[in-house]
Amino acid sequence: MFSRRLSTLRVPLARQASSQATLRKVLEEVVPVKQERLKKLKAEHGQAVLGDVKVENLIGGMRGLKSILWEASVLDPNEGIRFHGRTIPECQKVLPPAPGGNEMTAESMLWLLMTGQVPTPEQSRDLSRELAEKGELPTTITHLIDSLPPTLHPMTQLGIGVAALNHDSAFQSAYERGIKKTEYWHYALEDALTLIARLPALAARIYRNIYHPGTTLPPLNKDLDLVGNYTQMLGFGDNKDLTEYLRLYIALHGDHEGGNASAHTSHLVGSTLSDPFLSYSAALFALAGPLHGLANQEVLRWQLAMQKELGSGHEVSHEDIKAYLWKTLKSGQVVPGYGHGVLRAPDPRFIALQEFCDARPDLLKSPTISLVKKTYEVAPDVLKEHGKTKNPYPNVDATSGCVLYHYGLKEFKYYTVIFGVSRALGCLTQIVWARALGLPIERPKSLSMDAVESLIGK
Ligand code: CMX
After folding, report:
1. Does the reported pTM lie above 0.85?
2. Among 291, 349, 372, 375, which residue has the most ligand 1 atoms within 8 Å of its CB, making it the best to mutate?
3. Residue 340 catalytic?
4. Distance (Å, rounded) from C-alpha 295 to C-alpha 395?
5. Share of the chain above pLDDT 90, in %
6. Residue 270 contacts by C-beta under 8 Å, 6 or more apart in sequence?
7. Which of 112, 182, 276, 286 is deepest in the core (most CB within 10 A)?
8. CA–CA separation, 397 vs 401, rounded Å?
9. Measuring from atom 49 of ligand 1, which residue has the nearest CA?
């Protein structure tokens, strides 16, 4: 009885103590616990079977193969993403917003992804301050980015910039000094935080150079969160709604488990002990593909072409949209923003962005956003009838770019860069954990057709 009382008394004290802890301190507590868990899992269940490998998995891009350990999030085909077990609405409820805002910040999502814990508003603000203090670009990088031709795709520029930031990699120089394996994660964490901190300045510089040359980038404001600074530097700091939208968008896109092309790429490259900058740069080039991150630019291009042909979303009929969808499909193209490698239901990230729109009368009046809504009302049935895709429902990209367009960020070739700023949260978290857990270099087995046929006894 007495001891139970004592333990209930201890809870608030412990919470109070941890509310003062920094991200590094919390990780120092969490890492050994997970290390032990993994050791036990390997020792006691190393031979347990998680599934079969079928020939169709080998031919079909490894779909469904359970073969990557990824800590921060797990994707359920019907329910969508959970970040350390929390759904998107749950995250929206508990993760601290920026002062004066409502949407969860990138920093609070990063804290959750890294530690599995919900930060206090104070912890989240301290992390914002640390990132703002680290966020200026070194001149080597500004010179490099300024020397790139404005005709080079913004994603190519982002990948180049991120790779070149490894000039100052703490991990790389510690490795050269000869540190112990158990210390790797500390340096990976330093690099992860430096990269996340510098991404807004890098991404904003690319935007300004390409679309608004000659304009001056404002300096980082130490009192703003990561996204607050990013929108300032993009030149949209006065638009509170866009800032809030980007906070939501960047937090939501932060992670989508480990099997998607960009996440898997950073994990693979990181497993060679390439530093976090090089690993994430590789991931960005996977994100730049039209079947992955580039889809948000493709959706907008497709929606605008439809709008040009049919008229604004307020006027157009469902029948006209159906006919347009069939025209796209019959010309052998995919309907951008629909389908998914894992999901088999409407993407909850799409739903969350739609709810953001529904709460704002100006967005409801937008002809593009109303066309997105109307398309959603008919596209699943058309895609079911078409009969190819396993998932006839919208993914997050069905709407993400249209909101940016409405708020005046109209250069849709740039949209995947924003996705790239966001996905760093999850990919870099996993790199830190992969080093903390001592995960080895990836080396799956490949087979030739001869080898497959001989294995199946043909
Ligand atoms: N429109 C038309 N056909 C589609 C389709 C769509 N939106 N989505 C899938 N299909 C087709 C595929 O091209 C494939 O055809 P083939 O058999 O001729 O090759 C067939 O349906 C089966 O594909 P699937 O198993 O359902 O889907 P995949 O896992 O192969 O591909 C994805 C997933 C996302 C690449 C695909 O649905 C697609 O191309 N969607 C449009 C692009 C898009 O929105 N991408 C963003 C994804 C979000 C993210 O990156 O996180």
Report:
1. yes
2. 291
3. yes
4. 10
5. 91
6. 276, 279, 430, 431, 434, 435
7. 276
8. 7
9. 292
